């Protein structure tokens, strides 16, 4: 994987965001979690070198805890020992992601380390799971795309596509975890 590939994926996603209708009215089908995953999240995850079609690396709609079908994480990415190291919970575009931290926390509660991600393809919120039971205090930051501009929350400046790619690569690249 190269940063250039990731930058290209981010550009594609940014273009897709520009094509999204500004409101749900008359376009409700565009605001589904499945469409968000397909158009906005999958390209970025795959550009980070995670093969979503290889069960050694990734699973989608993974029952958590394994063997139970009550809750399913949208994406679970594994290390070479088959242990989950990244859990990604996707929401359709425009959802308030902070309201879903408890859901992500329940999906990652058994992980000793790794990363939890909440995303709608527009905003990526990352959580460092260094120690069990400290989920909410481990928010490590995120990035958000608003009106085609990539913003770092809490900062006035606009981040570059390269900056977003480097940020996601730093925390989510397969080579770091595999």
Describe this structure in words.
- The chain is α+β, with helices and mostly antiparallel strands and 178 residues long.
- 31% of the residues lie in helices and 25% in strands.
- Strands 1-2-3-4-5-6-7 form a 7-stranded mixed β-sheet, sandwiched between helices.
- The longest helix has 17 residues, at 3-19.
- The radius of gyration is 15 Å and the shape is globular.
- The chain starts with a helix and ends with a helix.
Parts with pLDDT < 50 across at least 5 consecutive residues: 133-138
Q: Helical proportion?
A: 25-40%
**Mean pLDDT, nearest integer?**
78
Helix-strand pattern, N to C? Answer: HHEEEHEEEEHH
Strand order, largest beta sheet: 1-2-3-4-5-6-7
Structural class from helices and strands? alpha+beta
How would you describe the shape? globular
